[in-house]
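Hey L., structure's done. Input below.
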Amino acid sequence: MPLEKLEKRILADAWNRADAINEEARSQAEKILAGARSEVRKIESDAEKSATEDANRREAEQVEALELQERSAMLEARSKAIEGALSKLKTLVTRKVKKHEYSRLIAGAIDEAVRIAPQEELTLVISKSDAKLVKNFAGRIIYGSVGKGIELRNRNGSVRMVTTIDSLFEKNKQEIETMLLKEAFPKRKRMTASRRRKRGR
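Output:
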């Protein structure tokens, strides 16, 4: 379905929120690094009087711990940004499909069910308000709540198909999430904590 404008708007929002969260994560990492530099200088000063090798080991451990903290903060920031974008995208997609393409979704579900059983043998469960969207259906129609969608079943109930906007979104969630990650978090050259620490000396 054509969602290009919708996707652009959602991706722009995800990008802005992701950048804000990333900036906050970077700011926190810099504060941690500033305190660590002071601690590292003290360790180096003490080590010069005793054992240089021991100081180097402790410094390396400090840097490794800081890099782990930074990576963890960045991963958490990404996760929050994507979670928010997915929720908003789902709401907008649901609204758009319900308004403009719901009849096509229903027709597509009926076409798929007809591959399993003749239309005359099918029972369609749909909300009363949505029943007007069903065109030329030769089977039986029952009014009922199926969420944002329909249910189709054969006469004896051995075959049952439920098609909803939510289920279609969930089915494609992984692909949508991957797309959002690629758009909101492109591969950028990133300076690691150790490189920043060396530059800050």
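The CA atoms of residues 123 and 140 lie 5 Å apart. The beta strands are 122-126, 140-143, 149-154, 160-164.

-- N.
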